[in-house]
Amino acid sequence: MPDISTPLPAAPAPSTAAEGGMSLLNLAARQRMLSQRMVLQTLRACRGDPEQLAAAWQTLTLFTDSQRRLESCAGELPPQAAQQIQALYHGPQGVAPRIAAFVQTMQATLRTIERQDPHCQDGLRPVLEQMDPVLEALNEATSVFDRLARQKAEAIMRELTDIVTSIQTVAREAKIVSFNAQVMAARAGVHGREFAVVAHALSRITADIDAQAIKALALVTASRPRH
């Protein structure tokens, strides 16, 4: 039985705007914390603490809103990622039924506490029995979102690497053009002075581009996810 001697603050009020700013991975990871908080609040509410009963309802609302957001996010993702999310929640081994069962049990238990049923302690048993299954389901979901986030980051890194490589290629070609222009300006003598100025300016610009490309490539390499 969890220690419930220390007062537990109420969960923050549900905020659609706040959730909109969270990544799907962070949202999925938060569900585990919310589920545990909710159970502790329910245990205290069953002991006659009305503030913890209100807090438990608030946490349950936040949990269900987040879960709805996670289960409906497939439409925002590329097809392959969307298929993984669909399989995660609604496939043959999907976790959605376990999470839904936990929510339904929580709702029934909180209603029993609201009615001040003297047997509300009995209603805690199903909640505690579902803790391991729901935590396992939430961990599975977090793992999938973590994998998708890493795949996305790796794809972005590959794209950035390709862009930087293209910039370096252009810079090298520009250097060759600049060198040839300087040679031609030297052969032209006095008549090639203005051309030489332009060639030198192009040389400096290409050197700057090359240096920045090298820095960008170093940053991309340093930021590459490590397994």
Write the layout of secondary structure elements.
Layout: H1 16-20, H2 24-46, H3 50-71, H4 79-90, H5 96-114, H6 120-129, H7 131-188, H8 193-223
Helix pairs in contact: 2-3, 2-5, 2-6, 2-7, 3-5, 4-7, 5-6, 5-7, 7-8
Written description of the protein model:
The protein has helices spanning 16-20, 24-46, 50-71, 79-90, 96-114, 120-129, 131-188, 193-223. By secondary structure, the chain is mainly alpha-helical. Helix 2 (24-46) runs antiparallel to helix 6 (120-129), helix 3 packs antiparallel against helix 5 and helix 7 packs antiparallel against helix 8 (193-223). The chain is rod-shaped. The model is unreliable at 1-18 (pLDDT under 50).
Task: Give structural attributes.
8 helices; single chain; 227 residues; mainly alpha; disordered N terminus
β-strand percent reads under 5%
How many strands, what sense, and barrel or not for the largest sheet?
none
Structural class of the helix and strand makeup? mainly alpha
The total count of strands amounts to: 0
Short account of what is shown:
By secondary structure, the chain is mainly α. It has helices spanning 16-20, 24-46, 50-71, 79-90, 96-114, 120-129, 131-188, 193-223.
